[in-house]
Amino acid sequence: MTHAEIKAWLQQRDPAELQTLWGRADAVRRAQVGDAVHLRGLIELSNYCTRLCGYCGVRAANQQLTRYRMPADEIVACARTALQQGFGTVVLQAGEDATLTGPWVAELIRRIKAETALAVTLSLGERPEAELAAWRAAGADRYLLRFETSNAALFAEIHPPHPVRSRDRVGQLRELRRLGYEVGSGVMIGIPGQSYDDLAADIALFRELDLDMIGVGPFVAHPDTPLGRGLGPQALPAGVQVPNDTLTTYQVLALARLACPRANIPATTALATLGGADGQTLALQRGANVIMPNVTPTAYRRLYQIYPDKACFYDGQEATAAVLRERLAAIGRTVGTGRGDAPNLQGRVCAADAATKGELV
Ligand code: 5AD
Description:
By secondary structure, the chain is α/β, with parallel strands linked by helices. Helix content is 42%, strand content 11%. It has 13 helices and 11 strands. The chain has helices at residues 3-11, 15-33, 72-84, 102-115, 129-137, 152-158, 169-178, 196-208, 246-259, 269-284, 298-301, 321-329, 343-356, and strands spanning 36-46, 89-94, 119-123, 142-144, 182-185, 188-189, 213-214, 217-218, 266-267, 290-291, 334-335. Strands 1, 2, 3, 4, 5, 7, 9, 10 and 11 form a 9-stranded parallel β-sheet that branches. Strands 6-8 form a two-stranded parallel sheet. α4 links the parallel β2 and β3 (119-123). The two termini are 23 Å apart.
């Protein structure tokens, strides 16, 4: 798809045309990654963060938030519960908490790997390459780091640079690839100042980066952040500014599926926040093939407020594979078994093997 074609699809509002887009995305999803929906248990380890992202509620300067950090034993216990509930993967997510040092995280990964057969996905922000390498050596399988927007000027406005390191998020994504991680990224949809051209370029970048996982969700204004208070970038004129609504999010999901047919694409929590449980179901019928139920202990969960009123559908005890299986069966889908690695990665590994053996790929 050309830039103009992607942009036209993003701006499309005709219901009949949109049905065509949903149908195409669903057909590609079924053909390329099948009917299984993979479950990832999300553990939010810590809401401490040293960064000052203008959109995010856990930013260092937000003093309205009670901070927590889960002890390692609790995290490992949580991973064990996730395994018992039928999950094949845990996602370890946190703010950029300086206390989660390289060796501490490496030890945590080793413990989870020693005690369970779970795949481990990390979502720990911008970290030095030496740590990413050590975590990969400790057994981490995947890493998620959204680039948020491919518009460098807009990104700079909403994301003050790291005080020491200069490499950008796309640079880290390339390092993660070199280190052998399955690599995930994504964007927020409807950031003030984000145009349809920007969003079309984001989707082209998903493809250029050959992402294994793509997570997208609507921007949700948080009152205790600069963007939520109307500081930061301002909305563009109507028709140019991307709206932060569910329809646009489905359009991005569907186009991401067409751009990256063999990627794993979750129906994300931010979508559920705006669109309800039905929002996640629709996402699964318009390109998505993954859901990430929150398995963080409830006492902590309400404190991980990236944005307000974060949805907790499919949460806690409810997030058992049995309950989900029933809901998914209603739309002709099954619960994935095993780790649910991205078929995209399998393709790349085969190609690399063949290349090493001197075969034509
Ligand atoms: N609205 C929607 N998504 C947000 N994120 C952070 N803050 C917000 C917000 N206000 C997303 C970012 C980040 C991910 C962990 O959460 O895309 O990468």
